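Quick one: structure tokens for this chain, please?
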Amino acid sequence: MTDADPWTAAMRRGDFPAAWDIAAASLAARDPRTRDDPRLPYHLRWVWDGRPFDGRNVLVRCYHGLGDTLMFARFLPLLARRAASVTVEMQPALIPLFRGFPGIDRLLPFDPARPAPPQDCDIEIMELALALRAPPDRAPPPYLRAAPAPLPTGTLALCWRAGDWDARRSIPQALFAPLCDRPAVTLVTAPTALPVMNPQGCPVDMVRTAGLVAGAALVVTADTMAAHLAGALGRPVWLLAPHDPDWRWPVTGDRSPWYPAMRVWRQGAPGDWAGVMARVAAALDRPRTRERTA
């Protein structure tokens, strides 16, 4: 595993005050002329310049991935207690899930070609924890709701494909075959040859996807949006992580302060997905073994 920078190391071990101090120092050193720089891709921009937001009209911009928005939306009600109003410029796919969400006065679809004009205070959604100095337990799951799909008892919801930008996170789907000897659904939109109940793939519809997650007994997923959806809904989820995981996930132990119902299964060595899946399959089989021998 590579040595992490100080901010990443602090986040991984859950030392949020230390991470905020590092981020605040970085913010103070930035050139204000580079704020929300249109020359940069959206995911590389910084938005909040440290200005106060109490009693002001705040625009929360969602410049990163769907999972990032799901993860940090927990802080919107905390922001709303202090701001005059909260407008959220959100990825269109997520808007149906967030209608009526507490802390949002107005929802706008994010169009990269035509971003919303600035308000009194703009902030990117992933900057909320820093701005509010709020650890995840200030806004614990479940903070999202979905009607559960009618699935057989014990159904697993499986996701092996992560985003294209980090190929290390995706897992060969064939390694999920041993998990399919029980009822299972896929959360991947593409068709699959695995024996799941929806071999045509998961609908490209976040409300219906959330219903599958809410109705499943357990979600087993690569590090992608499905993990955050399950976490936001407070559903049991097993996250399958690379050996050198993202800054959100621990490198010691298997629990995350972001999602108490999550268990993290990390590669024992870089690229060793077979070892991870063998451990997952064995853990799933243990309760059934006890039932057979009882």
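The longest helix spans residues 273-293.
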